[in-house]
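Database export, one record per block. Field names are fixed; values are copied verbatim from the stored entry.
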Amino acid sequence: MAAAKGDGAVGELELQAAIGFNGHVPCGLICHPDREHILYPLGCTVVIQHLDTKKQSFLHGHADNVSCVVVSRDGMYVASGQVTCIGFKADIILWDFPKQELLARLSLHEGKVEGLSFSPRGIYLVSLGGQDDGRVMVWDVSKREAVCGSPASPRSAGNANVVMCSSCRDEMFVTAGNFTIRVWELDTATKKIHPSECYAGHLRRITVCVQMTDDDDDFYLGTTSGDVLKVNTRSKVVTACGPQKKKFSMHVHLAQSPWLKPPEGLNSRVLRAEGKVPNALETKLHQKYTSESTAKEAVRQGHEQDAVPFGGPKEKAKAQSQTTVQSVL
């Protein structure tokens, strides 16, 4: 509300509450590791809301719309990126979550910050520039400075859209996008990052999200064509794809929440359609698991004869014989 200051002077408007959630930022609704808060971008502000009390607080600092938000695994840091005009720097802001204070402003990308991801121990922050920037950068969180950077995708492929750090190693991360999948390794001695192209055979997909398994053996890619790809991090080969026939009608998004506990024996990645708010949020995230499909279930739902099951016999035979992905799929 505006408050008068002196004769005829009007004070600044202070944001009291935000109502609504537009969902325009991919994977923009984040459950904090403390299991008490959710975060989401709204315009040029990041909203923090307590699940029980509904009390809101706000992170102000961006000059334009927030394009991505990420929280470190320990919950101590929040990072947010923004959109700006072509040719101008697009800021990344590093926040202290407990104090809700701005720690650093990181400005190297131009036009847009497409994605952000913290390394497992919060040592590094990896950022991905938009179409007009095309770079992937590694930042030292404690020093608040860039370590190194590189073009995110080869010239023969399209733009990278998503970035995800390893679940176990601070020196590994994945980028994917328009017909490109890369696994990156950070050489801390030389301060350089080295990409390895992943082999997808005849499959050409546009990736909209990526999730690593807890043991880093594989990662899953959600696509605009409505299917899920599984990639082995060691062989850099797509080992499974599905469903083959009745694909999801909307973009596939893979998400993981500390509140969601999947059925025994299934992967902890929860699959949902783009724009659909998880049922778990509507019930304060207290169910054992939601009615939405897990990644493994998605491939198995009525298509066991059409798709390669994740972890199925064909996949194991492929790993043993080192046959090409075409023969498996």
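Remark 1: Confidence is low (pLDDT under 50) at residues 257-329.
Remark 2: DSSP finds four helices and 22 strands in the chain.
End of record.
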